[in-house]
């Protein structure tokens, strides 16, 4: 925005006041237009961010439902392996491929939330809305971190079997160590199920707020 001086200096108070009024009105109009453009930009930014967040939360809520089923399946596999190892410990013969490893987990995403923060869209949202989003993504990140840490540790419980190649070749101490490891994994999965429970309600509340 530029302000150009008049071609000649005001000769009377009336000309001076008129000139001052002209400048003031011009500045007011320019600032009002600028504020209007910025306001439209902010609204567009927030509207786009909220739509992206809605889609992202819907995806994560779907992952949540899938992970609930995955955890139940994972615990059934653990129970199966524990039963097989107990049979081995008692001297019962088992098949070579009786023990099963491999868990399933769908990680949660947060690209839209990070983008909304980085572009400044979050700063133009209401406090209640920001709080709802922050609560969801904080709990989600915690659940994700716990799950990934657990699943990264899971293969270690199969180390003895990897060495022995056949369950029947496992020593009594190996079997006991694997039983303890699998029991610990089951406890961790049960704990993960509990810390996941609040997420579904948080997702529902966040979607309502949108």
How would you portray this structure in words?
The chain is an all-alpha fold and 210 residues long. The protein has one domain (54-209). 74% of the residues lie in helices and 0% in strands. The protein is built from 5 helices and no strands. It has helices spanning 13-89, 111-118, 127-153, 159-164, 172-209. It is rod-shaped, with a radius of gyration of 32 Å. The model has no long low-confidence stretch (mean pLDDT 82).
Summarize the structure.
Helices cover 74% and strands 0% of the residues. With 210 residues, it is an all-alpha fold.
Helicity, in percent? over 70%
Radius of gyration, rounded? 32 Å
Name the structural class: mainly alpha
The biggest beta sheet, please? Answer: none
Any low-confidence stretches, pLDDT <50, length ≥5? Answer: none
Mean pLDDT: 82
* H and E string: HHHHH
Total discrete domains: 1
